[in-house]
Amino acid sequence: MQPTVFERSGSVLKDRGAGLGIPTAVAVALRDQGFIDDGFPHVSIRALTHSSVSGKDAHYGGMAGSVPTFLEAIRWGHLFDHLRSLVPDDDYKTGRAVADAQNEGDEVKVTLDDGSVEYYDIAVFADGYHSLGRSIVCPTHQPRYQGYFIWRGTLPEQELGDSSLFDETLQRVGFPGGHFFAYLLPNESGSTTVGDRDLNWGVFLPLTADELADHLLDREGIQHELSLPPGRMRVEIEKKLKQKVKPLLPGYYADIVARSRNTFGQGIVATIPDVYRRGRICLAGDAGSLVPPFTTSGVFKGMKNGVELITALASERDIDSALGAWEEEQQKAGEGLKHLSDVMTDKLIASVPDFSTLSEADLIEWWSAIQLTLEETMG
Ligand SMILES: Cc1cc2nc3c(=O)[nH]c(=O)nc-3n(C[C@H](O)[C@H](O)[C@H](O)COP(=O)(O)OP(=O)(O)OC[C@H]3O[C@@H](n4cnc5c(N)ncnc54)[C@H](O)[C@@H]3O)c2cc1C
Q1: Is the whole model's pTM more than 0.90, yes or no?
Q2: 209-224, pLDDT tens digit by residue?
């Protein structure tokens, strides 16, 4: 196989500060497949602690307790740099946007935005949530806004003072209609030494479509479609969000949010296509099934789509039967992700309990449906 990658962006793709949580099993699979090595910067998370604002402890909130987990916190930029280093420069074309793709006989005709045309045996669209590929392969399934926004920020660990609350722990605070989470990440240069790391936090908040549009109008009056990068949010919106979350969070977490600068955010969209290919044009990553970020499934999905495509092409005699077998697997995986998303959306957005009223046994019971579905979906 001789792949060519077309990347629309002409500049070096960079981390925007936020982290990713990936199941430890996915990190191990990435390493076993040779995508990352043992030295890849990560901070392990072994407990998910759940609390809610409570009169009893205004500073830390009322806590139900913790559930065990196996997650690794990584930075998007480190993963991108590792994966990018595996693609020879000659095969990676930056500043080249794909404008169209059509099946023609046994080939795919790919038209680039400068009007040039190239022919390939297969075209895989891994072009993100707003995918051109999805509109060609499965135009009936466009991403739909889910009615909530994730507001995100980071704070250097040094500014936290005592960071022991986050030792191998993701802190989650529930409130009606959403939740807050925070965990430690390697810093930009990859250090995981205590004191060097960054705290990565996010708050899922309900917003109407009109409110979302207002939140995505940036400091320079530019309207963004779905996400706002760090440093672009209007000062009055950031102030409004800080006021909005203050009564929802125990003082300790509200203070972390209040002290964070250059916060950013994204409206949450989702869709599950019913087909993942048309002829020899395929969908992978967010261009295929798209589910909310709290499922921690984005890296898993991209790896699964890609590795299974290579395996199918290597094991079937002809390309079309390989793609047929691959698509069946992706449809099953998409159904699994949809189920995971439904279970987690119910528990973490639609009907979040007051964790301060739950015992640790209640919490374990509440979490068990999520745990079971995570294991069924991602192993
Ligand atoms: C707030 C948030 C938090 C998340 N947290 C997690 C997490 O904790 N764990 C996890 O596993 N996942 C997480 N995810 C999901 C994860 O980030 C995505 O699943 C993943 O980035 C999708 O990768 P992708 O390569 O499919 O698409 P993208 O990362 O969107 O990349 C698409 C690429 O295609 C390029 N492109 C687009 N159109 C064209 C074109 N026409 N021609 C050429 N190039 C084009 C773009 O420039 C871009 O580089 C999160 C997502 C969000 C929004």
Answers
A1: yes
A2: 999 999 999 999 999 9
